[in-house]
Amino acid sequence: MECELRTGAIAVFTRKSAMPGAGHVAFVESWDDHWITVLGGNQANQVCRKRYPRSRLVGLRWPG
Q: Please, which contacts does 1-7 make with residues 24 or more away whose CB atoms are closer than 8 Å?
């Protein structure tokens, strides 16, 4: 299910150095005009908060 940018949504991002079609997913925490802050796993080999450029956002999904 597609959704709008809101807290708790699952953000899908492109991955810089991966195979075509590969990506990264994480839960949206906050955002501004240029960045999306997410909580995700396997970010620097840990569960953590990280900012991604909005330009890398591929899509949003709502859990459920």
A: 1/61, 1/62, 1/64, 2/59, 2/60, 2/61, 2/62, 3/60, 3/61, 3/62, 4/60, 5/31, 5/36, 5/60
